[in-house]
Amino acid sequence: MTETPFPARTHAPADVLAPHDTADASTPIWLVSDTQPISSIPDLDETARQWLEETRFTGAPRKQAIVPGPTGKPAGVVLGLGNGSAGDPSGPSETLIGQLAASLPSGLYHLASETPNAALAAIAWGLGAYRFRRYKSAAGDTPPRLKLPAGVDYQSILSQVSAVWSGRDLINTPASDLGPAELEAAATLVARDHGASISTVVGDDLLDQGYRMIHAVGRANPRAPRLIDVRWQKPGGRADAPRITLVGKGITFDTGGLDIKPASGMLLMKKDMGGAAAALTLAEMIMSLGLDVRLRLLIAAAENSIAGDAFRPGDILTSRAGHTVEIGNTDAEGRLVLADALSLADEEAPDTLLVFATLTGAARVALGPDLPAFFTNDDAFAAALVEEAEKVGDPVWRLPLWPGYDRHLDSDIADLRNVSDSPFAGAVTAALFLKRFVSNARRFAHFDLYGWRPAARPLGPKGGEPQTARAILSLLTKELTV
């Protein structure tokens, strides 16, 4: 196992975000709504105001302009926010501020306009500034830097942005440099930084401890599969603090196994560990912010490959829970490794059990890449999460754990099948498969992610995205402060 899975970044979050008390001179950024006249922008001289009017600048969402000053240097930047709810991908317009971090010249800037959510604006800047340059020979330009608004907790913002950057790094890294061992190394570094404990079960030891399905999925690859187990509690935290367990799908590359994917279907399969990245991102933010919880993170890591000992369609696997599973398709491997991890998690009867996975194409067909599907047995949790997710620009959409489709998992020769014969409701039946392995957790939710941004947007460039982590952090923080 490598000790450090990644070299140092070209830039760090601290290079793009500055504390409010930074003494250096900074360039103002004015935020303008689509109904706001240019004449109302404060501290803008008449020449600059006339220039904006002559260029027909409006406050339409995402419109921006660098306002020239009398000496030729920028006097400021104007960004259109639209109606206040035209953000990226939807929701608060503060998220649009991220596009400035990707487009402005280097220098120090500050928000000259008040905004309802200054912390979200700062996070948006940090997320928009991210670049994955591990394989670029040139260092790239010095990024612009934002001086945080007054009253915003600098360390909190930095911690959240840093965790998301790390999650993106993991997803963006090709499988040649990120296998199960490197995923373990990334979790080890996070655990070490925050005083958490970590243990792993690797290779054939998985068989001895009952994780037969994780072993079956990963046994055809020379890079051994493993179960990664991280535990953390806030120093001095309550003995009865809520028990929160996160489970992530860590398939570092997915060929589809013997039911091999077409070439086009494998192009993005380095991101099939996006669920593990989202779970690790959320865990890192929980630890960095010191939430008073008993946290457990489980990552089932493997590479689904093809070799003489690959598991086959028609095989019967025995799960940790004792259920026998008939394999209808080897490309439905994520739910197999998750089932073993969920069984382990459920043995402790956590208060909240959350599972993250790039699990089904059906969820993407239904909701597209921007909107992760989620399934839960808790209506109040679902309603609160949808609301909180919209507030922070990290949206989710609930789909049903519809019990009527349980019959699609029936097998003639085993307890259940890993796929349905029906072409319908693939995301629902996958969620129902996972739910079969959870019976003790008080609150259960499964997040079916895409884990990827198909094109550059204000909150980040094209590439990996640990979706839902920020939304769930916001809700957990709110619940713990009520």
Textual characterization of the structure:
The model has no long low-confidence stretch (mean pLDDT 95). The two termini are 42 Å apart. The chain has 14 helices and 19 strands. The strands form four sheets. An eight-stranded mixed beta sheet has the order 7-8-10-9-13-17-14-15, sandwiched between helices. The protein has a six-stranded mixed beta sheet with strand order 1-6-5-2-4-3. It has helices at 46-54, 98-103, 118-128, 154-172, 180-193, 205-208, 212-218, 263-266, 274-289, 334-346, 361-367, 379-392, 426-435, 469-481, and strands spanning 17-18, 27-33, 64-68, 74-82, 108-111, 145-147, 197-202, 226-233, 243-254, 294-304, 316-318, 324-326, 352-357, 373-376, 397-398, 416-417, 443-448, 452-453, 463-464.
Can you summarize this structure?
The protein has 482 residues and is an alpha/beta fold.
Strand order of the largest sheet: 7-8-10-9-13-17-14-15
Basic shape? elongated
Secondary structure category:
alpha/beta
Strand content: 15-25%
Radius of gyration: 24 Å
Question: How far from one another are the termini?
Answer: 42 Å
**Helix share, percent:** 25-40%
Number of helices: 14
The total of beta strands comes to: 19
Main β sheet profile: 8 strands, mixed
Poorly predicted runs of 5 or more residues: none
Average residue pLDDT? 95
Keywords:
six-stranded mixed sheet, 482 residues, alpha/beta, 14 helices, elongated, eight-stranded mixed sheet, 30% helix, single chain
